[in-house]
């Protein structure tokens, strides 16, 4: 079994899910520019509690929209542990409903809506602890084989 297959799982309900790799911008613990997302499984959901910090600011005090999209994209990447196959983002849509505030705790959750062949239709939301939804998202991921990741330079391949 390859390291990638081991990481893919299966992972039981409630389990903390492993980072995609140590340098991943979304979840890698060794990326100093990263978001260091920590994600667990809740049934069919993948869930993170997240605080954007000063590295992610757009307008003063408000998270940059690209940073929010980055975190959502990476969160979707954790659904692949539930699906059991690698996949990559083909389309990412974000609705910014309210400012996502720096230094404020948010709950992020994502799920697979449906699958059609290689296409995974997924959705997510970002919710403040008072229950207000700050952002919603949909995306299309397409499953790929392990060779997809060998296109990168050897030093950065996973
Ligand atoms: C498991 C855990 C692993 C963990 C261990 C780490 C490994 C996993 C790391 C992941 C880490 C995550 C991190 C965050 C997620 C990224 O950031 S992923 C990085 C960003 N994304 C990319 O780089 C992807 C770049 N794009 C590509 O490589 C290629 O376009 C793709 C996505 C592989 C697809 O290419 P292709 O295989 O040639 O497929 P193509 O025929 O174009 O389309 C496939 C199907 O999708 C359909 N389609 C295309 N676009 C659309 C659309 N917008 N809407 C609906 N359908 C569409 C097509 O019509 C087609 O449908 P069918 O004809 O099959 O019915």
TrEMBL record:
<feature type="domain" description="Thioesterase">
    <location>
        <begin position="61"/>
        <end position="134"/>
    </location>
</feature>
<keyword id="KW-0963">Cytoplasm</keyword>
<keyword id="KW-1003">Cell membrane</keyword>
<keyword id="KW-0053">Apoptosis</keyword>
<dbReference type="GO" id="GO:0016787">
    <property type="term" value="F:hydrolase activity"/>
</dbReference>
<keyword id="KW-0966">Cell projection</keyword>
<dbReference type="GO" id="GO:0016020">
    <property type="term" value="C:membrane"/>
</dbReference>
<keyword id="KW-0443">Lipid metabolism</keyword>
<dbReference type="GO" id="GO:0005737">
    <property type="term" value="C:cytoplasm"/>
</dbReference>
<dbReference type="InterPro" id="IPR052365">
    <property type="entry name" value="THEM4/THEM5_acyl-CoA_thioest"/>
</dbReference>
<comment type="similarity">
    <text>Belongs to the THEM4/THEM5 thioesterase family.</text>
</comment>
<dbReference type="GO" id="GO:0006631">
    <property type="term" value="P:fatty acid metabolic process"/>
</dbReference>
<keyword id="KW-0378">Hydrolase</keyword>
<dbReference type="Pfam" id="PF03061">
    <property type="entry name" value="4HBT"/>
</dbReference>
<keyword id="KW-0276">Fatty acid metabolism</keyword>
<dbReference type="InterPro" id="IPR006683">
    <property type="entry name" value="Thioestr_dom"/>
</dbReference>
<keyword id="KW-0472">Membrane</keyword>
<protein>
    <recommendedName>
        <fullName>Acyl-coenzyme A thioesterase THEM4</fullName>
        <ecNumber>3.1.2.2</ecNumber>
    </recommendedName>
</protein>
<dbReference type="InterPro" id="IPR029069">
    <property type="entry name" value="HotDog_dom_sf"/>
</dbReference>
<keyword id="KW-0809">Transit peptide</keyword>
């Amino acid at each position: 079994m390859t390291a990638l297959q081991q990481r893919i799982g299966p992972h039981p309900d409630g389990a903390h899910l492993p980072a995609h790799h140590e340098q991943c911008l979304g979840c890698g613990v060794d990326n100093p520019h990263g978001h260091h997302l920590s994600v667990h499984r809740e049934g069919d959901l993948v869930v993170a509690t997240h605080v954007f910090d000063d590295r992610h600011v757009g307008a003063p005090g408000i998270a940059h929209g690209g940073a929010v999209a980055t975190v959502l994209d990476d969160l979707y990447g954790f659904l692949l542990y539930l699906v059991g196959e690698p996949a990559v983002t083909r389309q990412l849509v974000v609705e910014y409903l309210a400012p996502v505030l720096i230094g404020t705790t948010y709950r992020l959750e994502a799920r697979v809506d449906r699958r059609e062949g290689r296409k995974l239709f997924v959705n997510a939301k970002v919710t403040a602890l008072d229950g207000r939804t700050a952002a919603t998202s949909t995306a299309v991921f397409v499953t790929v084989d392990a060779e997809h990741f060998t296109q990168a330079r050897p030093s950065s391949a996973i």
